[in-house]
């Protein structure tokens, strides 16, 4: 075998060995699987709450409840004022003392009644927000399923940091830091804003769903 033939054989062997090693390394190299881009939508919650039909219905019921409480409180105060004038005109004696005790009891009952009504009103307001939030969450789920969104986020990128000096509040720096720590989105493009779609989704569903429970009487 001449030298040129031997050289050709050696070169072929080297190429084959290189190819084999490269193939082996490729076979051992772990494959990287990348998740596809997620479809994201953002929502301006303040706008949603302002324009939901259910929220408006709750507001009407709550105003009616507040009006009833206010009228009853005014009536009770009027009775107390009339009683006070009656007592002032009475002569001193056992009858007046008994009437004073009666007025004090009535005043105490009015204060207790007012506290209970404030708690009742607060409970109804809480029920409003719970109910509306459930509707928003369910509406976001249906919107995501129908339009293939992988993630729907609350857009807090436009929230302004506000501080207020008050002896009962933390220092201004702490107020600012606390608000910043609660924010999650620094920027959201208008192209991914689904606020209008979500409002339509929820209000349309509202037309066929049962109404929210009436405020307590």
Question: Can you walk through the features of this model?
Answer:
By secondary structure, the protein is mainly alpha-helical. The protein is built from 6 helices and 2 strands, in the order H-E-H-H-H-E-H-H. It has helices at 3-28, 45-51, 53-89, 94-147, 172-182, 195-206, and strands spanning 40-43, 151-154. It has a two-stranded parallel sheet with strand order 1-2. Helix 2 (45-51) runs parallel beside helix 6 (195-206) and helix 4 (94-147) crosses helix 6 (195-206). The protein is elongated.
Q: Which value, in Å, is the CA radius of gyration? A: 36 Å
Overall geometry: elongated
Class inferred from helices and paired strands:
mainly alpha
- The unreliable regions are none
How confident is the prediction overall: mean pLDDT? 86
Number of strands: 2
**What portion of residues is helical?**
55-70%
- Write the element-wise H/E pattern from the N-terminal end onward: HEHHHEHH
Which band does the percent of strand residues land in? under 5%
Give the N-to-C terminal Cα separation.
111 Å
Read across the widest sheet, the strand sequence of neighbours is: 1-2
Count of helical regions: 6
Highlighted features:
two-stranded parallel sheet; 6 helices; 2 strands; 217 residues; mainly alpha
Topology:
Elements: H1 3-28, E1 40-43, H2 45-51, H3 53-89, H4 94-147, E2 151-154, H5 172-182, H6 195-206
Parallel strand pairs: 1-2
Helix pairs in contact: 2-6, 3-4, 4-6
In short:
The protein is mainly α and 217 residues long.
């Amino acid at each position: 075998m001449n030298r040129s033939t031997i050289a050709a054989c050696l070169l072929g062997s080297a190429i084959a060995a290189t190819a084999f090693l490269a193939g082996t390394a490729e076979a051992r190299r772990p494959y990287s699987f990348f998740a596809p881009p997620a479809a994201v939508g953002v929502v301006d919650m303040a706008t949603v709450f302002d324009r939901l039909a259910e929220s408006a219905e709750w507001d009407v019921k709550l105003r009616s409840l507040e009006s009833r409480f206010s009228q009853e409180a005014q009536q009770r105060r009027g009775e107390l004022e009339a009683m006070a004038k009656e007592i002032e005109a009475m002569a001193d004696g056992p009858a007046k003392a008994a009437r004073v005790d009666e007025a004090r009891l009535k005043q105490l009952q009015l204060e207790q009644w007012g506290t209970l009504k404030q708690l009742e009103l607060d409970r109804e307001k809480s029920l409003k927000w719970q109910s509306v939030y459930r509707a928003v969450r369910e509406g976001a789920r249906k919107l995501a399923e129908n339009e293939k969104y992988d993630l729907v986020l609350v857009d807090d990128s436009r929230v302004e940091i506000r501080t207020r000096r008050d002896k009962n509040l933390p220092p201004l720096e702490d107020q600012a830091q606390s608000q910043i720590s609660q924010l999650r989105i620094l920027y959201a493009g208008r192209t991914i804003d689904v606020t209008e779609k979500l409002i339509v989704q929820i209000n349309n569903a509202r037309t066929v769903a049962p109404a929210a429970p009436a405020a307590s009487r």
